[in-house]
Amino acid sequence: MSVDSQAAPTPGGIAGDPLTGHRTLLTEATRAEMRQIIARYPQSRSALLPMLHLVQSVEGYVTQAGIEVCAAELDLTTAEVSAVATFYTMYKRRPVGEYHVGVCTNTLCAVLGGDAILSSLEDELGITHDETTDDGRVSLEHIECNAACDYAPVVMVNWEFLDSQSPRSTLDAVRTLRQGGIVRSTRGPEICTWRQASRILAGFGDGQADTGPAAGAPTLAGLRLAREHGWRAPGFDRHEHSADDQQAIAARRAQLAAGPDRPGTRVVEQSEQQPTPQPGAIAEAMGAVGNWIEEHLPGGTGHRDGKDTP
Ligand code: FES
To answer: I want to staple 14 with a disulfide (CB 3.0 to 4.6 A). Which of 65, 103, 226, 305 is the partner?
Structure first.
């Protein structure tokens, strides 16, 4: 079944979107890449999420043609694929801008300036949530928590973070992108276009996955405090790793000690200043949080596991 955009629709073929008149850009090469994605999973339907990202990378959004191709490749109904595509907000059912700007307006970001950032962008661009500028360069979305509250207020452009933003810094970044300039995420990678980002999310990397620090100072603040005060999770010392776990942890520690192991890995200065979290350190940080809750929240038992808190 051909999906060549130039071909006339054939019985059983992909004719594009009857409502919008959109002619599909999906090709046999796209279908071949879909099959590569499907081959990664023991259950073919598990491939649907990256396949929808692949559709967005080609079409710009999840088109009706994209839904039909995914359904055909996975032996699903179009209703099943549509249900997934309309459930997750990262999938768009109509075109977005080349640079899709998400501003977090959830509680922490809002009180630290997220609302002000969103309004300054609305004033600058003349659009609001879920709209795209006439030149097709920028679209706006207000987002409910980018899971980066330690860097609030946070903005994302095509899912790359711009941390600790202000209305001024966000406007500067968006103006630069709109004029065709280059903007780097505050975490390192160059911000790419919506279609390029969608292709990365489909699992076809751009070589920048290891760019930037693994975890910055705000993210590691709890761990630092826990170490300074010797806070431990109740029962942490009694936890025993299996022989397999111990072997995997030792191998990972040796790998980390040996440094970057992939060609093209670029370690930026900040990453050298930050300790890389170890498996035990993560449990340690979680333990510190548990101790704090026990100490400070109503209903806590006051159990200190033999350690004093300040
Ligand atoms: S509240 Fe904004 S990232 Fe969580």
So the answer is: 65
Q: Is the CB of 148 under 6 A from ligand 1?
A: yes
* Ligand 1 centroid to residue 98 C-alpha, Å: 24
- Tens of pLDDT, residue by residue over 2-43, are 344 333 333 344 556 666 677 899 999 999 999 999 999 999
Binding site membership of 106 for ligand 1 (Cβ less than 6 Å):
yes
Among the listed residues 53, 4, 49, 1, the one whose alpha carbon sits nearest the alpha carbon of residue 26: 4
The fold for domain 4-87 equals Arc Repressor Mutant, subunit A (1.10.10)
Please list the residue range(s) of the chain that carry CATH number 3.40.30.10.
Answer: 99-192
- List every span in the chain annotated with CATH 1.10.10: 4-87
What is the whole-number distance in angstroms between the Cα of residue 213 and the centre of ligand 1? Answer: 19
- Find out whether 24 and 3 touch, Cβ atoms under 8 Å: yes
Q: What distance in angstroms lies between residue 94's CA and the mean position of ligand 1's atoms?
A: 26
Tell me the pLDDT of the chain averaged across its residues. Answer: 82
Question: What's the one-letter identity of residue 51?
Answer: M
Looking at the domain that runs over 99-192, which CATH code has it been given?
Answer: 3.40.30.10
- Residue 103: CB within 6 Å of ligand 1? no
The two structure tokens encoding residue 203: 């699992």
* pTM, to two decimals: 0.71
Region 197-218: mean pLDDT is 86
